[in-house]
Amino acid sequence: MGSRAPEPTPPEDSNDDIHVLVTGFGPFADYSTNPSYLIATALPPYLSLPSLPKIHLHVHRSPIRVAYKTVRKLIPALLFSPPSKPPSNHASTALNPPQPNFDIILHIGMAPKRKHFAMEARAHRDLYKGKDVDGQTMSGDTFWQHEYDAPPMLETGFNAEDVCERWKQSVEDEDVRLSDDAGRYLCEFIYYTSLVEHWRRDLHDAERRVMFLHVPGAAEREDVERGVRVTEGLVGALVGSWLGGARRRV
After folding, report:
1. What is the pTM of this model?
2. Less crowded by CB within 10 Å, the N or C end of the chain?
3. Which of 125, 108, 136, 114 is CA-nearest to residue 41?
4. Which pLDDT score is estimated for 166?
């Protein structure tokens, strides 16, 4: 538990398997242990669930540093491959656009004061005033607004209500909820970062297959095992909802 996970690998194109990138955070403030990464690294390498294709779970090799600059630099390269050259015999010399490295992105973070698990429906661009582990804030930052003309708020491409209902059914003994307040700290910041990276590449709204999971702050062995069960349930709900045709309600 808590050991370094292997480097995430992009999906192969040879089958219908689903590939999910999972990230968790490192320590911050008074929390020397962050259960989000303990849960992520305790996940199995794949899930075999009834009526669904094989789901591969690719856990990022290290906990994400709780720092704004780290997130803004790391996430774009993690989610998308760089533009590639066309085959030598191709008529066009234009680079192929960046392609998503994974089918679904699941970020996990801790909410120390919560006792329940929550999937977040949306994330905001501005007003990140809390200090990160480097003592920095994003107060007054206008990068996304000026560089991308990005909207003040972005929502997941999943139909959050449908996913949450499926999630509840898969973990009936757990308190799992849908939330629209991700906290305006690094959890919401990484969520918006992933959403805006999809948005700015002109992917359709429904192609933002990104989700954020908040877990309680407890980090004992039984808490991590509980978190793994709940996370597996959410992954199954995400895949089932998507393949079932549910999309974000506009």
Report:
1. 0.90
2. C
3. 108
4. 98
